[in-house]
Amino acid sequence: MSSDQAIGMMDGAYFVGRKEILDWVNSTCALGLTKVEQTCTGAVACMILDSIFPGKVPMSKVDWSANKDYEYINNYKILQKVFTNLKIDRHIEVDKLIRGKYQDNLEFMQWYKRFYELNGGGTRDYDAFAQREKGKGGAAYSQKFKFTAGGAGSSASSTTSSQAAPVAKRRPAGTTRSSAKPPSAPSSIEKERAIVTKRPSDTTSNAEVEQLTKENEMLADANSTLGAQIEGLEKERDFYFGKLRDIELLLQDLEESDHNDTVKSIFNILQIMSMSPDGRKRSMSSDETTTDEDFYDAHDDERESPLGTAVVPVDLAVIPENDGSRREETMRSMTTSDGSDSRGDEESCKTDDAFVVRNKDTGEVYDIRELDAHPVDCYTIFPQNFEPPQDREDSNEQHIQGEKTKTSLKARLRLTFKKKDKTVKANDNLGVQVGASNKENREFDSLSLVQTLSKHSGTIWTMKFSHDGARLVTGGQDAILRVWKVNMTEKTTQHRPLFLEQPDQSYQGHTMPIVDVSWSRSNFILSASMDKTVRLWHISKEECLHVFQHPDSVPAVDFHPKDDRFFLSGCFDNKARIWNIPDGCVVSYVQTPVMITAATFHPSGSRVVVGLLHGQCILYQVNNHQAMNYYTQIDCRNARGATRKGRKVTGIEFTPEGKFFLVSTNDSRMRLFSVDNYSRVCKYKGLRNEYLQIKARFSQDGEHVICGSENGNVYIWNRSMAQHSTSFMSGKQDRNNSFEFFTAAEPPSGVVTVALFAPASTYALAPSGLGPDQDVHVEACTGYIVSASYDGCIKVFQRH
User: Fold this and answer.
1) C-alpha–C-alpha distance, residues 754 and 761, integer Å
2) Which helix (H) or strand (E) element contains residue 578?
3) For the chain, which residues make up each domain, given as ranges?
4) Average pLDDT over residues 367-375
5) Which end of the chain is more exposed for a tag (fewer CB within 10 A), N or C?
6) Can you give the residue ranges of the Calponin-homology (CH) domain (predicted)?
7) Which residues fall within 8 angstroms of residue 231, CB to CB, at 6 or more apart?
């Protein structure tokens, strides 16, 4: 249907200048754009395609009012869908175009102009104003970029004069000026909608126009050359800053050695080198040398961190917390001056203000000189003032009654005829009381606590079973990765421990909290940390095998499910990367609009899902060369209420067969999406997850969902219960409010950070002592529940 095969990289289309592109766009779409970058919204591209193939583009769905890069994506989705329907073999690089960079949008429009010419563009009547007004904000867009004679850059006077003789619509090809009927006196609306062309003035010769065009092209080439030179200089700068940073870290380790004087002298040199031209201190770390596309540049002018906390001009994060002498010396050097430096009262006041820090997320204000009271190695994507709930007396009864008051008829009926919750009458002190909400047939009403492990010092943020079910890996605030081996000895007591009491391995190397882990099928382990690294381990080795350095903290990591040579990492620098482990390098990466907080592979390895800070999930297709290409985007947020703007995505989990994926967010909701059409299947409610990185998990058979909570409970849902509930009392059909819960963390650290089911292979390895009336296939996938809490305690519960 379309002709685009003749457009190669050496085609003359790619040598068309900026002015010619703008003139073509403005005349085709009746606009007054002044920059090629203004086409990055995708709306202009949709209109041009509609002018070539009338009626094929749903112009009513085009958003002309989009002003954010993630809002542009919807327009490109429409464009790519029409390309597919028309069998146009052209992949749109959405992630590049939405950034609004000149070169990317120029090349796309150069190709587009050639495609327009090959497919008979401009030979049909086309009312751009009427088509644009069908979309959202089309009329306002026409007023903002009002079309004038001569295109972009015309003055107001030329605009007025050029509207004196407009042409209502473009003449079809083949007609002559003499054959056209003389137009009647145009109205004001027809004047504005007219498509006109500007003739060169009599005083301007063709030679002068050609000369100006050549000069313009020469300047554009020179600009591109300078851009390439700047990019090379930035890479060289980053390289040497990285080396200086390595030296600084090495000197910190040698500071207490016999060469203390030499070390101090080198430290002084580094401090002088790290001063910026305006006298402010800058860090040697690589996150200070990011490009203009990175997230942190949006805060450079205000000297703020991306989390909303003002950045002070002193880098104390590199000073170990236990190094009291050096921290004290640094504080003195900041708060005092030598005798030669006399300052007035006004400057002293300004100096004191420089140490006042306000956390914009929580409103907390404190003096940075009192930093000893604030740990420097905290998990920085959490609020500084988060405190676990202290009072939870009779929490199981308060859970249901503590929800927000509902006044609907069905809510009143539920309260009137509410059945009493069943409780477990434990035979010993290890029995666990289980509550339920909107659920008649309980499945987990017989739970017992069989083991407690307390080797971690500090919060456990992540844990995961190996593929063979023989080991559990845990990591958290103490930056130590521990591997626990399943106890496979014969059962000697009624409640036999699931794990051996001592860790099988304890890996040290990270310097900040471990926040995510991943197993390969050959028992390699990847650990992601806030120290800007991902480390590779193996259960047969005691040392780290490799360190993958990142520009910023890494909240997510995942092995490729089909090929252990590759893994995915999500970084706070807004980039998701696929790494080649043997080569130790990045194979491909994609840029996201905001900070990445979760990322994972599809079980087939052909797709990647990335969760963002504001509740969006972006899906990418992965080809055989591990290159990621944008596919689609979904929003995980409520349509109304306080969280309608979207909250952080805390976890993404696929069902074992890969037909659904579950997204956990900080609005205390979990949403189940279908992989076939990316529509929402179900929403799970009941837990409390407002601040922390708490992630829901599936059982190995995919029939149950389990998640921890900030109120100290573990919650369990049936995945498909909402789909089979059709009664009057069930409420909305895509909601699942039926769950069971039990307390797994007591005050004062009453937060369950991780909860998961042990896989069937773990249940098979551990002698379970099933009764004759129990089915091993039913019990295997949910027989053991493992939870981790804010105080570093691991608990194992067994289902009877």
Assistant:
1) 20
2) strand 575-580
3) 12-199, 400-799
4) 52
5) N
6) 15-117
7) none
Q: Which of 782, 618, 654, 661 is nearest to 714 (CA)?
A: 782
Residue 638 has a pLDDT of 84
Q: Which CATH superfamily is domain 12-199 in?
A: Calponin-like domain (1.10.418.10)
Q: Are 768 and 744 in contact (CB under 8 A)?
A: no
Q: State the chain's mean pLDDT as an integer.
A: 76
Q: Kindly report, residue by residue over 291-310, the tens digit of the pLDDT.
A: 333 433 333 443 333 333 33
**What are 581-610's pLDDT values in tens digits?**
999 999 999 999 999 999 999 999 999 999
Place of tokens 């062309």: 197
Task: Check whether 573 has a pLDDT greater than 70.
Answer: yes
β-pair type (431-432, 434-437): unpaired
User: Can you say how many angstroms the Cα of residue 613 is from the centroid of all Cα atoms in its chain?
Assistant: 5
DSSP string, 302-355: TTB-TTSBBPPSS--TTS-TT-HHHHHHHHHHHH---TT----HHHHHHHHHTT
CATH domain 400-799 topology: Methylamine Dehydrogenase; Chain H (2.130.10)
53: number of Cβ within 10 Å: 18
Q: Give 668-723 pLDDT, tens digit per residue.
A: 999 999 999 899 999 999 999 998 999 999 999 999 999 999 999 999 999 876 44
DSSP assignment, residue 617? E
> Tell me, what's the pLDDT at 204?
52
**What confidence tens digit (pLDDT) does each residue in 77-109 have?**
999 999 988 888 888 888 889 888 888 899 889
Please answer whether residues 516 and 510 qualify as being in contact, where contact means their C-beta atoms are separated by less than 8 angstroms.
Answer: no
